[in-house]
Design a protein that fits this description.
Blueprint lengths: L1 E5 L2 H10 L11 E7 L5 E6 L5 E6 L3
Parallel strand pairs: 1-4
Antiparallel strand pairs: 2-3, 3-4
């Protein structure tokens, strides 16, 4: 697992979508939608072709 923190998680998410990665709950690679987490940050997930989870985190600071 790896975390990527960015100022604009929506732009990163769109760029990954535009590269051809599908939004899905199964399969590799895949994107899981950005959601507000209980701790207050917005997070999406990219599961790469090897099954590694990349947390796409909007930097709160």
């Amino acid at each position: 697992m790896c975390s990527i923190r960015v100022q604009d998680v929506d732009t990163l998410y769109r760029a990954i979508c535009d590269s051809g990665v599908d939004e899905s709950r199964v399969g590799f690679p895949r994107l899981m939608p950005i959601e507000l987490q209980p701790w207050g940050q917005r997070v999406g997930y990219l599961i790469d072709a090897d099954g590694t989870q990349l947390n796409l985190i909007e930097d709160a600071g």
